[in-house]
Amino acid sequence: MTAAPEEMACQICLSPLNTLGTPPTYVHPIQLATDGHEPVPVPVSQLDTVRLTCDFCGDPYPTWTLLGGEVHAVAVGATAGLVQNFGEAWAACAVCQTYIDDGRNDKVVDRAVRALGFGHHPQARERIEQLHRAFLNTRVPGRTLITTTAWPTTAIGARELPKVRDRLGGFYRGSDELPFALAATDVRQQIAAGLDRAGLFWIDGDFTDLAEYAVEKLPDVTISRDLMPSTDGLLVWSRPVTRRQIAAASWTSTSDGWQLVNYRTLGRGLDGTPLQRLREQVGWLASMSTVQVHDQHVLPGDHPAAALVATWLLITQQAAEVTTAEVDKVIRKSYARTNRAAPEVRIARIGANGGTTPPSARSASGDPGPSQTSRFWVSGHWRNQPYGPGRALRRPVYINPFLRGPDGAPIKLSTTVRMLSSHKPKSEDHD
Ligand SMILES: [Zn+2]
Ligand SMILES: [Zn+2]
After folding, report:
1. 3-class secondary structure, 97
2. Which of 60, 79, 98, 418 could potentially form a cystine with 274 if both were Cys, beta carbons 3.0 to 4.6 Å apart?
3. Is residue 430 in a domain?
4. Bridge-partner residues for 89, per DSSP?
5. Which ligand is nearest to the CA of 58?
């Protein structure tokens, strides 16, 4: 099989682009309503998010890429609806995939007919069926997880982390494919093995906010083992961070450094059998981007892995108070059955005294005033500090985020920093 030409999408609207003429020019799909901008083609491999839809039914959360015979552009119905450049790769949503796996192609057609509003057009149904059959009859075995779908967020709790880790490891070991950098089997096996050994970290809401604020100003960082809170790890933020909306990240030590992977959650909005299968076969996380770094690699402060690196730094500089989560009895038992040590989940939260608040900064902040019943993060910046043997090494330490206000008061939004806590304020009963 020859390699297909690289798929392109528009950098502005994230829609996959069609080609027109020779030499090919890239155009928006005909049925796409844009604001009139010219398409800006970039390879799909460079984008975290692409607005694909299920090629069977139009669902906005496609999950799998299937390969089959080339189906050329086909129009159904007089007024658009289904006008697409069907190639040899089709995107399938989790529901269509479930029907296809169960040999219920008629159900896929029903779904498409309903989605396209062709309920009263028997001819349209027939055409859709032909189209699906043309593809499915020539389908090649196997499927590739679509990792660029912008799923709404699934919240992952600390107690669920061992289960989330195990499913992710199972997916890396399985036969469903991954695109691009994670396509190679040896890389996948290494990450799966790393996940088995991984320290599990869950970052609480306030600490996630702090990390997200701090990452915006992160300088270039020289990667080394001392930055990391464990040799291998999986870390989940309590909500997705940065404009990339990264939900989780893993790091795996390899023979020549570390493989860092960012993840998004998937599956939100599904239910019944499609959800159950997705959780069994994929789990909760889909890789978004990955990078292999070696020791002393200089990682730019705006790199996609910066959120992970900033969170490591905040944990290792002890801005965090790390506690251990109680793990589910069921999970503990299932680990015991397979002779695995009970999993440990570490929860990172902001330390009792604000963690990073130097006492001098607190007194220098002056009298917060009698009316103050909440605390504010005032500012913060990274400073490269010497450390290690002979203090020859440098690593960024987040200086400040110093808290102003009475100890123990809830932490609130300031003018410069986003809200760090949504805890209910204490009653104003002072004086
Ligand atoms: Zn566009
Ligand atoms: Zn579908």
Report:
1. helix
2. 98
3. no
4. 67
5. 2
Q: Render each residue's pLDDT in the chain as its tens digit; 431 residues.
A: 334 567 889 999 999 888 877 777 888 887 777 888 999 999 988 888 999 999 999 899 999 999 987 766 555 444 444 445 567 889 999 999 999 999 999 999 999 999 888 777 888 888 889 889 988 998 999 999 999 999 999 999 999 999 999 999 999 999 999 988 888 899 999 999 999 999 999 999 888 988 988 898 999 999 999 999 999 999 999 999 998 999 999 999 999 899 999 999 999 999 999 999 999 999 999 999 999 999 999 999 999 999 999 999 999 887 778 888 888 888 889 899 988 888 989 998 876 544 444 333 333 344 444 445 555 555 678 888 888 888 888 899 888 665 556 666 665 544 333 333 333 333 333 33
Find the 268 Cα to ligand 1 centroid distance in Å.
26
Give residue 26 CA to ligand 1 midpoint distance, Å.
10
Q: Please tell me the total count of domains within the chain.
A: 2
For residue 50, the 8-state DSSP code is: -
Ligand in nearest proximity to the CA of 95: 2
What is the CA(355)–ligand 1 centre distance, in A? 45
CA pair distance 153, 284, nearest whole angstrom? 10
Distance 100 CA to ligand 2 centre (A): 10
In three-state secondary structure terms, 87 is coil
Beta strands in 22-94 (DSSP E): 25-27, 41-43, 62-67, 74-76, 82-84, 89-93
171 and 319 within one domain: yes
Both 19 and 79 in one domain: the answer is yes
Is the distance from CB of 211 to CB of 311 less than 8 angstroms? yes
Q: How far is the CA of 290 from the centre of ligand 2 (A)?
A: 28
3-class DSSP assignment, residue 286: strand
The pTM for the full model equals 0.83
What DSSP letter does each residue of 199-220 carry, written as one string?
EEEEE-HHHHHHHHHHHTT---
CA of 49 to the centre of ligand 1 (A): 13
- Domain containing 52 equals 8-145
Cα-to-centroid distance, 57 and ligand 2 (Å): 4
Between the CA of 43 and the centroid of ligand 2 the distance, in Å, is 24
Cα of 53 vs centre of ligand 2, distance in Å, is 8
28: left (phi > 0), else alpha (psi -120 to 50), else beta?
beta
| Distance in Å, CA 348 to ligand 1 centroid | 40
Ligand nearest to the CA of 113: 2
Q: Which of 295, 319, 350 is the last residue of a domain?
A: 350
